[in-house]
Amino acid sequence: MRNLILSAALVTASLFGVTAQAAEPLEAGKQYVELSSAVPVAVPGKIEVVELFWYGCPHCYAFEPTINPWAEKLPADVNFVRIPAMFGGIWNIHGQLFITLEAMGVEHKVHKAVFEAIHGGKKLATPEEMAEFLAGEGVDKDKFLSTYNSFAVKGKVEDAKKKAQAYQITGVPTMVVNGKYRFDLGTAGGPEGALSVADQLIAKERAAK
Asked: pTM of this prediction?
């Protein structure tokens, strides 16, 4: 786990670096990696953009003000999906938290608050601690706990782990377009560069239809 966390830090070390790379012609093996086997998308017929993240990752937290407005303006033929990276320990606990909030249909309401709480010093390391915090955000405590421990959520946790393995990620934040192209902020040249690469790969997939 230590090596994986170190990888996450190294991969995203250039978060605030220049975006000069994104201005160069898009090239597999440079700004992005083309996966050897395409991973099925969640909604067939739509171009999928995945962001793999961890609530405890400072670079993911810093990426939020950049990626959120972009994701909100994506056209109707693009499906934006967040998948929590789970490399063990607290990563898995926070990943299950995210999936629980999604299952309850409240993730969009409290996602920012959860990020801010964790980076403000709250560990949110147990379901009870999470439930207590979320109650202050309007989420029913008992419903959260029952959903967190449900068979359905545990199944979705396993699905998320398998997806991350299929994408062959080594750190976060990492993005994947249409189950085919993987890149991170380091290879893309920073936050804006990552979105530029995503836009170009979306256009590439749209043109291939």
From this structure: 0.89
